[in-house]
Design brief:
The structure is a homodimer. Chain A is of the alpha/beta class. Chain A has two domains: about 150 residues, Aspartate Aminotransferase, domain 1; about 240 residues, Aspartate Aminotransferase, domain 2 (3-Layer(aba) Sandwich), CATH 3.40.640.10. The first copy, chain A, contains eleven helices and 15 strands. A seven-stranded mixed sheet of chain A has the order 2-8-7-6-5-3-4, with helices on both faces. In chain A, a hairpin with a 5-residue loop joins strand 11 and strand 12. In chain A, helix 9 runs parallel beside helix 11. Chain A is globular. Chains A, B: It comes from Geoanaerobacter pelophilus. Chains A, B: It holds the Pfam family Aminotran_1_2.
């Protein structure tokens, strides 16, 4: 009877190793156990450190209070999110970019990781997918888990996915794939490299997608960290993008919501795919059906807190936190440069992408940084084969810690 | 080039109609627009009405305050949930049943709908699935969406799924399928019929699953409404269930969290499936990988609020809300019986399942109840073909509304 036991989704077994961050966690715990006196500074996982702002906190508390009386109680909300939040985002965050969106084109969620992963549900499995290399591991791993790939080769490339190397040589900006691809993940400002895309560069991708009938999955989780007014915050700033792009945004880094959980997806009504019989069909309708059936909406008090980000005072406070992190980025970037390291990113983006010195592998550098400086970062190779020889530091730390980490690195690495 | 556009997941097109509750919403909105003076009482969707209890509110506020200072700030938490919540549930809600669970066997989520839907990710597509009829539509629809079925027939049965009719004739308790099935959804106390399973009945299913190498997906979302001490709250009260069952629970109805969002899944370490090469593999490991890659944990303040349910005072208050709803159930059940209607459920379960009178279809009865009594319920046929001729009323209303709804029904239906 053995052979009749319920079968597992075998695709999971193709995944090479544990998810990157748990592995980092294991190494840091082992180091801390062996060196209990060491003050470890974490600039690795990219978790925020600054508290929610007063205006956001007040809205959060007020919404919890709504749940205290029968008259103001809020039960099931719309699975796609409350209009009060959707309309605030459209009005305050998209309209100033010249981007008009309908309420029905935006979907609020409990976070961008879920959205980036779940979006695959509405696409046929036989679409060809292109991802960056290095890349946010969720894009890669969820495509493996859903069964779009074969096994990984020795380098870590999964058969069936198209990888677009982003290296020093191409300025960390991917070249158009040579083969026809149906879905393309783009992330700008980029995690992990900190690279940004100019409007011209984004236009190139939109034109490419329109010409090749591809859909762009555009991850804009870090758009709030753009300070240069010429850099686009949304792919929809490019004409034609509504016909070829889905956009993801997150409150995690923008407003310190990593533990609070809120994100959003834009699926324009103009965006169409084809059925197996060759008819056009709306991705917006598919995503609505997906979300209403498999999701029950983000937490009501969380959505109220998120909406407060877009009040005048809320935005002022949120911007101050963003400025704080971007000053951290400057300190890291300039400090590491002064230490003789080659450093990318950290401008218009909260990640610093450094070249490991002396030919060290990414994990060797991780261990060296942890052992010598008691600083935790993220090995570039964890983001893909082309990340080997690079290392990510996050600007989301506490200022004193950032300054101390940079001092320790300077002391250790300066020739 | 048309034929090269990214392809959609065609399986979505097999879905017969919109999800049940949006359709109810549309009809109610149309009625309200045409009859603006009518006081419509909603006993349909099964949303709770009573506020969060004081102890839960306090914990919720305290956790929001944790996010107000850098020292107490909580960012990314464990994707599988905080130990403070998992351990409280195990200690206060499972141990008293004689069920021992490890911390690593429980996974906290943003709601049971998501869990019931997402669990399919870790199973191979070629497993055969059995579901009740009538049934919580999510079990059916998510199996269609993931591609496990063919089209629906005229009755609404999807080819490839095994349906287990639950009717007056079998006491709303499913018979074992004649064909070999790999996965079986069971829900007790049942949504929508309000039927409960005795320990002997559950033991029958566990023994069946063990003998036939099936996995039971046990939905215990309504276990808190059981008042009869002989009725099991968890399938793990039956010996051997850890080898064959995954259990889902929710805070939605138990503690009024429909808008707050928190649920949980238990995936025992002993539970194994097989790989395509016939080796055993742990479902617990697969679910951990799924959650760490595709989910980022439930909101921290929400988990703190949920943990407060299990404090002594929190549980006393929560139990008072449950008693309130169960008194509603009694009023509906007895009132409808007095009106000459045939009524099931409403004991150990918050749903009343009534037989539509005079051979009315479920939707005819829906329209009649809405037009004549201004009361909204849920058509039984919306839960599956065997629900035709039945109708669901929920006990989650406000007491005055419940009393008034029952009076209106009595007046209209009493011979």
């Amino acid at each position: 009877m053995e052979e009749d036991v319920a079968k597992i989704n075998d695709n999971y077994l193709k995944l090479k190793a544990g998810y990157l961050f748990p592995e980092i966690g294991r190494r840091v715990r082992a180091f801390a156990a062996a060196n209990p006196e060491a003050k470890v500074i974490r600039l690795g996982i990219g978790d925020v450190t600054q508290p929610l702002t007063p205006t956001i906190l007040k809205a959060f508390h007020d919404a919890v209070d709504d749940l205290a009386t029968e008259n103001s109680f809020m039960g099931y909300g719309p699975e796609q999110g409350y209009d009060f939040l959707i309309d605030a985002i459209i009005e305050k965050s998209y309209k100033p970019l010249g981007v008009d969106l309908k309420t029905t084109e935006m979907f609020i969620s409990d976070g961008s990781k879920c959205d980036c992963a779940n979006i695959l549900d509405i696409f046929a499995l036989d679409n060809t997918v292109a991802i960056g290399d290095p890349v946010y591991p969720v894009y890669n791993d969820t495509n493996v888990m859903i069964g779009r790939t074969g096994d990984a080769d020795d380098k870590g490339y999964y058969k069936g996915l198209v990888y677009m190397p982003c290296t020093e040589e191409n300025g960390f900006f991917p070249a158009y794939p040579k083969e026809k691809v149906d879905m393309i993940y783009l992330c700008f400002p980029n995690n992990p490299t900190g690279a940004v895309a100019t409007k011209e560069q984004l236009k190139g991708w939109v034109d490419y997608a329109l010409a090749n009938d591809s859909i762009i999955l555009f991850d804009a989780a870090y758009e709030a960290f753009i300070t240069d007014p010429s850099i686009p915050h949304s792919i929809y700033e490019v004409e034609g993008a509504k016909k070829c792009a889905i956009e993801f945004r997150s409150f995690s880094k923008t407003a310190g919501f990593t533990g609070v959980r809120c994100g959003l997806v834009v699926v324009p009504e103009e965006l169409e795919g084809t059925t197996s019989t060759g008819e056009k069909y709306s991705f917006n309708k598919l995503w609505l059906r997906r979300q209403t059936t498999k999701f029950n909406g983000a937490s009501y008090p969380v959505q109220k807190a998120a909406a407060a980000v877009y009040t005048e005072q809320g935005w002022k406070e949120t911007q101050a936190n963003i400025d704080y992190y971007m000053e951290n980025a400057r300190i890291i970037r300039e400090g590491l440069t002064a230490a003789g390291l080659t450093v990318y990113g950290g401008v218009n983006a909260p990640y610093i992408w450094l070249k490991t010195p002396a030919g060290l592998t990414s994990w060797d550098f991780f261990d060296k940084l942890l052992n010598d400086c008691h600083v935790v970062g993220t090995p570039g190779s964890g983001f893909g084969p082309s990340g080997e020889g690079y290392f990510r530091l996050s600007a989301f730390g506490n200022r004193d810690n950032v300054v101390e980490a940079v001092e320790r690195i300077k002391k250790n690495f300066k020739k």
